[in-house]
Design brief:
single chain; mainly beta; 1 helix; globular
Length: 115
């Protein structure tokens, strides 16, 4: 069964940093582009960053220059390094394939940025 487990969220002040991790089952990680998504209260879930198995990453304009996505194919893990965090980055962050598969959504990890 495909499984994605996110971790690393927390409470941080504006300007701070967090690093999110997502451990994936090999069956989905090894052949798919992976993405980090987020959903803020009252808003739709959005893709913020994605990375192919062997390729350059892509970012939403809102996080470009502040967030860095990376993947360790040996560990079946994808990371999201978030720097210069802003209050508007507050959301539940999820990982999934890109494009996403509904049945892969996990619990996500909460990121809260205080002003």
């Amino acid at each position: 069964q495909a499984q994605l487990v996110e971790s690393g969220g927390g409470l941080v002040q504006a300007g701070g940093s967090l690093r999110l991790s997502c451990a994936a089952s090999e069956s989905i990680f090894s052949i798919n582009a992976m993405g980090w998504y987020r959903q803020a209260p009252g808003k739709q879930r959005e893709l913020v960053a994605s990375i192919r198995v062997f390729g350059s990453p892509n970012y939403a304009d809102s996080v470009k220059g502040r967030f860095t996505i990376s993947r360790d194919n040996a560990k079946n893990t994808v990371y999201l390094q978030m720097n210069s965090l802003k209050p508007e980055d507050t959301a539940v962050y999820y990982c999934n394939t890109d494009p996403y598969v509904r049945s892969y959504w996990g619990q996500g990890t909460q990121v809260t940025v205080s002003s």
